[in-house]
Every structure is written in structure tokens, then in C-alpha cells.
Amino acid sequence: MYLQATDITKRFERNGHTVIAIEGVSFALDAGDLVGLQGPSGSGKSTLLNIIGGLERPTDGEVIVAGTRLNDLSDTELARYRRSTVGFVFQSAHLLGSLTVFENVMLPLIPIPGPEAEKTSRVHAALETVNIAHRADHLPAELSGGEQARAAVARAIVNNPHILLADEPTGELDRNNADNILTLLGGLNDEGCTVIIASHDEPTLAVTRRKLLLDAGHLQAEA
Known about the structure:
- With about 220 residues, this protein is an alpha/beta fold.
- It has a single domain (about 30-50, about 75-215), classed as Rossmann fold (3-Layer(aba) Sandwich).
- Helix content is about 30%, strand content about 30%.
- It is built from seven helices and ten strands.
- Strand 9 (about 210-215) and strand 10 form a beta hairpin.
- Helix 4 packs across helix 5 and helix 5 (about 145-155) runs parallel beside helix 6.
């Protein structure tokens, strides 16, 4: 198994009350899986992705990726894990408006040691992969919604991630642009990247080969 999640639970304290986002979730993925994480809003999909991606720590349970137990990593080591292993695509592009497309895609590489020429080459390659290199010098406000989504994918893949986590990646796109993003994600998976797509949209989930069904924070079934 490449990724093993065992009895993952995440609790938050909110206004004096304990909120359970996910509880007792367990599953395993092989390298190169293309998985749909399905469930309604509030079912815990984003929380689970954040824990897999090292953005949050579980309250209970453990996540092991490629033999590394994420629970044992320090904050600095988790940051390194995110930079070297994980790519994130969110529902909104979250591009920085004051930076060009090229500069936005460069952001994940800034903390990584290495020659600037190599980083520049990787940014250009990522932009070419998503067919937006011709907009590299433009600001996000000058892009269409579909172009912004492609730029966000380029930023997610510029570090050559082993795992790509996509949280409602087509939620703000029309069907044509949504299909383009799904084609990009499928192509990355064909190259060996493990891809997890969280969504409640059936056409989006149709491209996945496995589905994990979440409801009210519990893993209900696998299809």
C-alpha cells in the first residue's frame, strides 16, 4: 500500500462545543490510484484531504504515506512533505492577484533549494502541460475562469507531486472547462500520480476508478 489511513478522527472546538468533522475513517490506496471522494457538503471531504496533505493533523488515528507516518513529523517536516510529495487543487484558484501567472506557479518552488534556471524550466514545463504558457506574463484578473483553473493546476504540479489532492476542482467551472480540468488530472494520473478528487458532482466523479463515500464524517462504503 502506498497510502494507509487508519481510524482517522478529527475534532474541532467551536463556540464551546466539540464538532466531529470525520470519525474512524480507514482506507488504503495503491500508488497510481485515481479515487473519488464523494459526499455532500459538510461530510468531511475537505478535512480528510487536508489531513492526507499534511495541512491538518488528525485528533486520533494515523496516516502513513510511502512508509512515513505523518503523525510523527514535526511542523517543519510536514511542510517539507507538502512541498516534495503533495499538490493541491482547490475549488477556487486562489491565485495571488498581484503576481503574474508565471510568478504564481513559481511560488511552491521558492523554498526549495536549487538553481533558479531549473526552477524556471519547471514552471515553463508546468504551464505547457496545462496549455497556458501563452498567458504566463498576465495577471489572474486578465484570465478567464477556465484559464485561472488551469494556472492553479500548473501551480499544483510544478513540484512533480506523487499525490495530487483536488477539492471540488470543477465546482466553479462550466462543463467544458470542467472537462478540460478532468482531462488534465487524468493525464497526470496516467503518468503515475496518485489522484484523489473530492466532489459531489457525478460527472466529475465518473472519471475516477474507485469511490470512497463519506457521509456525516463517516466512511459509508467503497465502490
